[in-house]
Amino acid sequence: MLPHPSLELRNGAVFIADSHFSHKDPRAYKLLDFLAKNPPPQIFFVGDIFQLFIGAIPSSLRLHAPLLAKISELARQSEVFYLEGNHDFSLPSLENVQIFPRKRQPLVLEYEGKTILLAHGDLFISPFYERYIQTMTHPLVTFFLRLLDKITLGHLYTSIHKKVLQKSIFALKNPDEKSFINKRLDDYFSYAKNHNLAPEILHFIIEGHFHSTAQNSLYKALPSFYCQKKILQLIHGEFHIFYSSN
C-alpha cells in the first residue's frame, strides 16, 4: 500500500526546499512575508527548511516558534504542506498545515491527469543512512533527547545548534548528471512497484535534498534556496522562478 492517498497538485503551486534557515535568519522572514503578500494556491515546504530543528526538543521548539507561527499564518490564504527533512523533523502540529514526516514520503500527487511523487529526497540513499535517520526519528530517541534538553536546561541543544550553524553547506556537483537522474528514477520506480502504484502510470518525480538543479522529462531536483537562492512555481507543467534572493 502507498503511505497515503493522492493529493491534488494545483496549478501555481510553489516549492521551497533546503533553505537551511537559522532561527533568526532575515532571509526567512523576508521570504515568508513575500509569500504572505503574494499567496500562491499551494505552498510545499520540501524539507531542510531549518538548519537544525527538532520539534520534540523544547529548546528547539521555542527557538523556532516565531518562524513556525509565520508558516502557520500562510495557511490562512494558501494550502500549506510541510515535508520533513533530515535537518527538520518531529514537527509539532501547526494550524491548517499538513505535515508529512519522512515515513509518509513520497507524497503521491495528481496534476493535470498525471501522477507525481514528491519527497524531501533523502530516500534510497544507503542502508547505513536509513538506519541512522530511522534511529534519529524514533520516538524513544526523541524522548531521550527531550529528557536531555530538560536536564541540561537547554544548554546541550544550544551548543549543538551553534556548531551545526557553523557548518558549510554546498551545492551538489554531479559529474555525471544522467547517471544520477537514472539512479534516482530507478529507486522511485522500484518504490512505486513495491507499493502497488503501477510504474507505467507514474509520470514525474520531484525532490529536494541534493542542492541540485538536475532535471529531465521525468525528474526535477528542486533548487536549494540556500545554495541556488530561488524557489519555483509550477504553471501548466513548467517550472518558473517565483522568488529569488541575492
From TrEMBL:
InterPro entries the UniProt entry points to: Calcineurin-like_PHP, LpxH-like, Metallo-depent_PP-like
TM ranges: none
GO cellular component, one term: membrane
Recorded superkingdom: Bacteria
Calcineurin-like phosphoesterase domain location: 14-211
GO function terms (MF aspect): metal ion binding; UDP-2,3-diacylglucosamine hydrolase activity
GO biological process, one term: lipid A biosynthetic process
Coiled coil: none
Keyword field contains Methyltransferase: no
Gene3D superfamilies named in the record: 3.60.21.10
Swiss-Prot/TrEMBL keywords: Cell inner membrane, Cell membrane, Manganese, Membrane, Metal-binding
Pfam families: Metallophos (PF00149)
Name of this protein: Putative metallophosphoesterase
Source organism (scientific name): Helicobacter mustelae (strain ATCC 43772 / CCUG 25715 / CIP 103759 / LMG 18044 / NCTC 12198 / R85-136P) (Campylobacter mustelae)
